[in-house]
Protein: Transposase
Amino acid sequence: MLSLPPSARIYICHQAVDMRKSFDGLAAASSQLLAQSPDSGHFFVFLNARRTLIKILNWDGDGYTIWSKRLEQGQFNLPKAVGDRLLLDLRDLHAMLDGVKPGAYYKRFSQPSHSH
Structure:
């Protein structure tokens, strides 16, 4: 489970990225593909073409960190895109990492309607 500082934003790149990239390559992709400063403290999410590998790049103040996950089966389900760039909230990122499909959100409880 990832936890983020309240000021951090999560950007997802919808263009497939070569997952041989490491710190410098993903930092360059943050600038080129997402038009964001890689040392901003925000989190940048990248996927390979088959959506079986994800890498998350972050600058933590004195260096880059990368978090990665490779699926043995299935694919990561992308949230619905808005243009070339999408800003995610932490709940959406966790849902994506846990394999929840974007259309599968539902309320666990709803108030019964009162008709008089």
Summary: The longest strand covers residues 53-59.
